[in-house]
User: What shape does this take?
Amino acid sequence: MSAEEDYAVSATVEELSRGIREFARKLAALLNVRIEKILDAIDLARLAEILDIRIVNGEIIGLRVKIPSETRRGVFYYTIVGIYGSKCTCEASMIRRRICKHIIATLIIWNILNLFRTGRQLDLSKLRWLTESEHGETTPSSGELREDSRELQEVS
Ligand SMILES: [Zn+2]
Assistant: This one.
C-alpha cells in the first residue's frame, strides 16, 4: 500500500456523519449506557491527541491517545484501545476497571479513522473485551444505569 493510499479519504461527509451516529447507537446498546453518555464522549474525543496508531495489513488494530481531564487543569489521561483490550490511566478504569469515557472516546476516534480510511465502521464484534466486562454484571435496572453514568464521570 502506498503512502497516498494511507491518507486517502474513502467516505463522503454524509457517510461519515451517518457512520458516527450509527456507531454511537451501537456502542450505547452494547455498553448499556444512555446515548447522551456516548455523545459526551464524542465531545471528549475532540480534545484528544492521538499519540500512536497501530496498523497491521492496512487495518488499524489499536491506538493510543492523550485526553485532558475535564475537571482538573493540567491533568491528562493516557488511553490505549486495541483489538485485545483497553487501558486508561483514569481512576474509573484503573481502580474500578470500568470502561471509562476516555476508552469510549478512543473507540469513537478509532471508528472515525476507519470511516476515513476505508468507508467502513469499526467492527465492534471484533472487540470481545467490550462485552466480556458486562458478563459479570446483573441485568441493569434504571438505578444501575444511573450508577453507570456516574461511574463514567471522573472521581474528584
Ligand atoms: Zn479513563
Observations:
- Strands lie at 49-56, 59-68, 76-82, 85-88.
- The longest strand covers residues 59-68.
- The chain has one domain: 3-148.
- Residues 3-148 form one domain.
